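Ticket #4471: structure output looks truncated?

Reporter: J.K.
Steps to reproduce: submitted the chain below (172 residues) through the standard prediction queue, then opened the result file.
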Amino acid sequence: MRKVALSIIAFIILFIGTASASAYFFSNSATEVSNIFNPKRHETITVTKDLPYKITRVEDNTLEYGKTKIANDGANGVKSITYDVEYKGEKEISRTKISEEVSKEPITRVIAIGTKIIWHCYDTTSYDKNAYNDNKCVNSTGETVFVPDSMAMDLDPDYLPSRKGHPYYNSF
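Returned output as attached by the reporter:
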């Protein structure tokens, strides 16, 4: 019985020692096999990105109040970023920026906003009536005034009286 007990103890010691040794051996072998079939590799890639343009608004005293126009069209810029990418198998495990270069600067869009007050006048006198302030003039801010012909002509260079017999009718 003593021999059997010693044999069992020896077997257990041998098994435990072998098990831990084989586990170590097989785990390292699995890692090595994994590294053989899924090696780490580096790749250099370049990514391009758009740089959005800025928008600037400027007042323009040659443009009628409240109106806008594009004075300069904007354009996006382009930036190239180069990375060193490390893969293990097909999986990306790290990315390091190597360089960054702006190949095209963005161009600012400029929007002109009108500030010039312009008057538009027209004759509101009926044909059978001859009122003194018979011209309605409206400016680009929405202000409305009634003025005589001479003032209407000063406010609006394009003004022409609309009735026959008027001293300025068709005189231009």
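Triage note (M.O.): checked the attachment and the full token line is present. Residues 39-115 form a domain with the Resuscitation-promoting factor rpfb fold fold (CATH 2.20.230.10).
Status: closed, working as intended.
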